[in-house]
Amino acid sequence: MLFVLRGLSWSTNKRMLSILICIICCIHSGKSQSCTDGFTYDRRARQCIDVDECRTLPDPCRGDMQCVNQNGGYLCIPRGLYSQSYARSSPRSYPEASYPEESYPDRSVGYPEPFIPNSPPVGAGTGPGPGPSYPIVSRSTPCLLGYTLGVDGTCVDVDECETESHQCNPTQVCINTAGGYTCSCTEGYWLVGGQCQDIDECRYGYCQQLCANIPGSYSCSCSPGFLLNTDSRTCQDVDECETTPCSHGCLNTYGTFMCTCDEGFELASDGTTCNDLDECSFSDFLCQHMCVNTPGSFSCVCPPGYYVYEDGRSCEDLNECESGNNTCTTAQVCFNFQGGYTCLDPLRCEQPYIELSDNQCMCSAEIPACREKPFTILYRHMDLSSGRSVPADIFQMQATTRYPGAFYIFQIKSGNEGREFYMRQTSNISATLVLSRPIKGPKTIVLDLEMVTVNNVINFRGSSIIRLTIFVSEHPF
Description:
Elements: H1 2-31, E1 39-42, E2 47-50, H2 53-56, E3 65-70, E4 73-78, H3 79-86, E5 147-149, E6 155-157, H4 160-163, E7 173-177, E8 180-184, E9 189-192, E10 195-198, E11 210-214, E12 217-221, E13 226-228, E14 235-237, E15 249-253, E16 256-260, E17 265-267, E18 274-276, E19 290-294, E20 297-301, E21 306-308, E22 315-317, H5 320-323, E23 333-337, E24 340-344, E25 354-357, E26 360-362, E27 376-385, E28 392-398, E29 406-414, E30 421-425, E31 430-435, E32 443-455, E33 460-473
């Protein structure tokens, strides 16, 4: 009997344990359903329903913002914007969830039996068999703000820009977005105080050199001598020398160029052409005789009978007698002087003189006609340049034979009518011809320089003549 009671007791306990496990499973099964953010699970309808955050949350939107509940969330938009562009003409009615009339067990302990509604939930399959085991969101909920229900039953975006239901001011551009729109400014403008104002790009150094601000943009340009690059911002130097703007040389510099001139030229006032320099005008002493200007240079010219010396400026006498550039005959003697020459005929002594040598005539004392005449006449020639500084010693004469007790007197016997010369005795037997006044040529002067020999011991007095021919050349310098 005791065994039977114990057996009954074990059987009863086993059944009660099964019921308890079933209740716990039902409770656990009911509590294990979860929904995405913005939804909560309704165990009576056995589906996820939207949470109205605008009602459940304390002060969800701050300031002058209107809370608008959305399916799975909510929006905070300005009250004026909501009342003007997004307010619905008539509030949409949201269907209330319908529930079966059957009584439900206490939710605190779960459901002892599986709950099967009278009709399958929205989204369940049309064929036989149970619907999906995951929570189903009701499709009867409205579209999000900014969307509208399409003909196919789906929510499509409302293009507020196309329907002109936006609140952008005339200076702004409406840009449609998914579920809404934005008010923006076009490129080159920025939003200041609700208005689109032009951006002055020139203030930010967008251009390397010159910048001109224009509405909504800017324009870069370059200074003269530069070319705008393909990036429309930077500038590169222009090599003006490639177009040969200079008449002589060209030197390119940064942003410009510089013209150079060859030696003997100077840059003109236009900065590109070169003018010849007149070197002859710089100085009267550039050339000894005459300066002739040439393009980029000059040349010195000498008068006839002279040639330009190695220094290119001085003039030297051209010795026509040595060079053979003369017209003298073979019987004549060529005598060169400064700037020219002359042809001397052979010596012819006048009677009663006889030829002693090729340049000397003698009159013998034995001939009565010679007693009052000079014993000898010696012919000499010399040249003298005009403008010779004075006084100047130009010729010297002396006795070749000395006699005991004799002395000598030197004098100019003839040819010194202008008194340009005088004799200065330098010793007992010599004297010097001195030029005392300048002589202007060309001219020829013949002087008879006499040397008188006096010997009182033997009571002798005699004389000799040097007939000096002076060719005075014209001063060319």
